[in-house]
Amino acid sequence: MADVGIEFAQADNAFTWVEDLDAAQKIADEFSPKRLHQRLDAMVKEFVPTLLTIDGGIQWSIAQIEYSTDIMFERPEALAPVYEEIVRTLSHAVKPDQISMFLGKRFSPRFEGEMGTGFVRRIQGMCLRHFMARSGIKIYDKYGHLATT
């Protein structure tokens, strides 16, 4: 966003204010794994050319990816009263077999992995995470300014 002149405020890895949300979303929508691979290949060629001698070439993969839906609040006091109620309700109301539905999967009685819910209160805020094996869905408040899922 800085490259195209969109002003923003950031806390850790979250944006707490963005001057032009539509323009920022357009940048995110244009993300291309192919272009990322091309940039990585160019860096290898420039900085570590010996890797190019590997039989079969270099294969890039993404080990973890996160999609988020952020709701930004101008004033932290607007988020606090509703957020705590939402998190507490979700921590008691969601059942393990519903977690698979949230993750776009169908629950199978043959599933042998771990499934559950975790609730953590940290200085940065409260976090509720429902998980099924390595996949999960979470909601947390970033420094009192956002509800992120």
Structure, described:
The protein is of the alpha+beta class and 149 residues long. It has helices at 21-29, 33-47, 76-93, 96-102; strands at 8-11, 14-18, 70-72, 115-122, 125-132, 135-142, 146-148. It has a five-stranded antiparallel beta sheet with strand order 3-7-6-5-4, covered by helices on one side. Strands 1-2 form a two-stranded antiparallel ribbon. The two termini are 22 Å apart. The mean pLDDT is 82.
Keywords:
two-stranded antiparallel ribbon, 2 domains, alpha+beta, 149 residues, 7 strands
Short description:
This protein is an alpha+beta fold. The protein has helices spanning 21-29, 33-47, 76-93, 96-102, and strands at residues 8-11, 14-18, 70-72, 115-122, 125-132, 135-142, 146-148.
> What is the overall pLDDT average?
82
Q: How far do the termini sit from each other? A: 22 Å
The Rg value, from CA coordinates, equals: 20 Å
Give the helix proportion (percent range): 25-40%
Order of helices and strands: EEHHEHHEEEE
Strand tally: 7
Output the strand order for the largest sheet: 3-7-6-5-4
Helix and strand composition category: alpha+beta
- Total separate domains: 2
Q: Count up the helices.
A: 4
Low-confidence stretches: none
Main sheet makeup = 5 strands, antiparallel
Shape: flat
* Portion in beta strands: 25-35%
